[in-house]
Amino acid sequence: MNSSVSNPDREARFDVVVVGAGFAGLYLLYRLREMGLTVLAIEAGSDVGGTWYWNRYPGARCDVPSQQYSFSFSPELEREWVWSEKYAAQPEILAYIKHVADRFELRELIRFDTRVISAVFDEGQTSWTVTTDTGETVFSRFCIMATGSLSASRVPDIPGIELFAGRTFHTGQWPHEGVDFTGRRVGVIGTGSSAVQAIPKIAEQAASLTVFQRTPNFTVPARNAPLDAESAAAWQRDFPTLRRTAKATRSAMLYEYGDKPTLSVAEAERQAEFERRWTTGGTNFLYAYNDIVRDEAANAVAADFVRAKIAEMVEDPATAAKLTPRDYPIGAKRICVDTDYYATYNRENVQLVDLRAEPITSVSPGAILTAERDYPLDDLVFATGFDAMTGALLAMDIRGVDGERLRDKWAAGPRTYLGLMTAGFPNLFMINGPGSPSVLSNMVMSIEHNVEWITDCLARMQDRGETVIEAKRDAEDGWVEHVNEVAAPTLYAKAASWYMGANIPGKPRVFMPYVGGFSTYTATCARIADNDYEGFRIDRSDSVPRSAAG
After folding, report:
1. Strands 13-19 and 350-354, sheet pairing
2. Beta-carbon count within 10 A of 80 CB
3. Segment holding 300, helix H or strand E
């Protein structure tokens, strides 16, 4: 490996190419540069930020408390950045990410406005050939995908959608200049996390808002508020301990983890605990008891509590019934966090369309047509989510040993070892890949862990003169089996969620994240590294084995 950092504008060969410049990409650049490696990040956007660069829809904010949804690697960074709210809005999160890029002088290592088209492994040279939409070709020993779990936005295939003459927007590709809905008839398709945040804000501005819902989602109140000086001071004083405590949990979050089964507690006590957590706000609600996502009877009790809250908040019983989930467990789909979502349906300018009762049949230049009637619209907002966890990777033409395409290997579902590598693709790492805790954890903490594990591995290889690392197929098979085993006793498979790829027609139904817990996962990764990177084939030569089986 090279021992100095090169200017990316003058160098076509690098030790490492990183794809993406969000949280993961920036921390990779920081660590790799510290190691003395030449590195280039390729970013499709015009600036850093990743998902927070693209998702600028009204109401966009994180559903993890701000102080925890931030980097922990730099005590100086922890001390100098003070968050303004319990749950930071998109502009503040993006400002934080920009601050990180500037503070650590990372921008010079990033090529913006450039999208990776393909990455092909050259067995003879033991290197990756990365091509971009600008026609450029870049060569690197290692390639690390920091493309994000929720970055490949999707639009549903609706007959006539191309005929719509009004304005169309996707929450994941929102115009940077913002959108004025004043006096407009607006339709929103989707009621997932993005929609739950955007709908109340759009309703405040639009002349009318029609929400097209296929599946109602469980959502809990955020109870967002400014962070007072006392809270900020407490975090500044105790953050090393707080970070260690969070990383020792199953979600890398400072939740109040209940240690009792739901039904072991008297009903009055149970209802009081649910009420306390509802009043406090946030997804801490789901952790009231230790079996809510594992036991159907326990789950039903928690779900019924939220259903009763919906009935209380929504004035029209018919609308409340449409908004009430009935056919999947609470938490089996990603639970949403909202501000005034249910109350928005009490506004006179808001109507809800149940697409199960009246499905969309087509789109005309000025309306959405359902089986029951036409809904005239000026603007159409797609809050239809993402091709989660695999979409951004499979959008690129990634080829490994013998020219095997990643999209072919993963045709029946993604297969990885630890969510970090996939057999047959040497020197290709991924951050928060399928088979890692990723979206079931505090994503920033999962990012930090993956980045540190990968860069520690590369440092070890650098010290030993090793050039090639690849996951063994039997290790990968064992990890895939383990991921499925720990998911099987849970209730996650009982929902058609994006965790399972169910929101993408034709995508294999495979539970993609690792549900065994962040602390268990990180301990496993540490054990594997300590055991001479068990399950990986690491080679000192410039030759690559044709197969890493066994």
Report:
1. unpaired
2. 11
3. helix 296-313
